[in-house]
Amino acid sequence: MHSMRHNVEHVHVCCIRIRLHEQRSSPRVISTLRSELSRYLRTETVGGSILLIAAAVALIWVNSPFGESYIALRDFQIGPSALHLDLSLGTWAQDGLLAVFFFVAGLELKRELVVGELADRKAAMLPIIAACGGVLVPAIIAASIGFGTPGMDKGWAIPVATDIAFALGVLALTGSKIPASARVFLLSLAVVDDLLAIILIAVLFTGSLAMLWLLTAAAALAAYAYAQHKRITTTFLYVPLALLTWYAMHEAGIHATLAGVALGLLTRVRRDPDEEYAPGSRLEHRIQPYSAGFCVPVFALFASGVPINAAVLGDIFTDPVGQSVVVGLLVGKTVGIFGISLLAIKLGIATKPKTLELRDMFALSVLGGIGFTVSLLVADLALDGVGDGSEAEIAKAAVLVTSLVASLIGSALLWRRGRVHAARDDASTAIATDARELPGEVDK
């Protein structure tokens, strides 16, 4: 019993130390960060569910007798031709609505880098290394399998991205009993992963540049940054600047979604003493529900409409494009995230949170194979105009099928790990209860 009391006191002291360590900033700031993280996770969870519904609707619609109406709607053009914006609804969703998604991703990345989990270099090393491994290994696998296949000179980038909304949604539904450090690890990993994917999009899919428009975009971004520095708060300035930045990048030949992440990274995320919330937190709070609940699902609706039949399903596993996506996402992501992380831990380059076990990391690595949003975007960009369009359809079908498989396997692993953690928590609670109920015995 003396040993039991010692263990209980040791756990209590450790908890106090953890709390004191977390409170190295002001309690109000820590509380704000925790509430922002919780709100972010809740919104992305709901958004992930709506995203799945939108993707399911698209698949059912395009494969139904009314499939031609889906294609007609997706290809319907709208917008002023004088501004070169007479785009199809599918393109508007891809270039316009996803810019909002990337703006929120940029805000989240900036907040993590400045005041969040990635602000501590030592704590940030593990998810950063994991994200790099999760991009590099799938890219190598996809490039090797698809070598020489038309479109795979850029199509190797299809399996490099992890879908934040989808992955967090699966984690929330099946991993509620695993430690909170697992959620932080997956969120940080996915944010860095998306940043790397954004850089790849900028490098691979930027053709000839219109320098005047590029300078215009740079000037608009500089004006936005200056206004943030001067603490200007009016939306009548920021909205026109954001629209000008998007349009200038579109005209410059750069993928317009990059305007979103650039603006997000230029937004202040550290609050002033007289502010209740920083501008980044306010914007994220206001815009993220529209991003997760409307922008991403609408993009999924127009991007997931892939004709699925026996021939396409067969091509997924026999065509080099389909094989590269399947193996890249399902195997490459798992090996890249978990393998590189394990190597970094063994070499002492990075440390993992004490509450995050290796088996938890493996389950999260499998979830990394959920490519969805950005993978569908890259498939459209890389394989557009290649052959008769069948390669793009095969790649997108492979993304959908593999993301579903990764979510099912990851869910099973997380559910099992949750049972293990729940059993340990119950045992710890029982020990603490016995220690309180038998004070006399403990004293003896």
Overview of this structure, please?
The protein has 444 residues and is mainly alpha-helical. Helix content is 76%, strand content 1%. The chain contains 18 helices and 2 strands. The protein has helices at residues 2-22, 27-62, 67-74, 89-114, 121-145, 152-155, 164-174, 180-204, 211-229, 235-252, 258-265, 279-303, 310-318, 320-346, 358-367, 372-383, 390-437, 439-443; strands at 77-78, 87-88. A two-stranded antiparallel sheet has the order 1-2. Helix 2 crosses helix 7 (164-174), helix 10 crosses helix 11 (258-265) and helix 13 crosses helix 14. The longest helix is centred in the C-terminal third of the chain and has 48 residues, at 390-437. The radius of gyration is 24 Å and the shape is globular. 45% of the residues are buried.
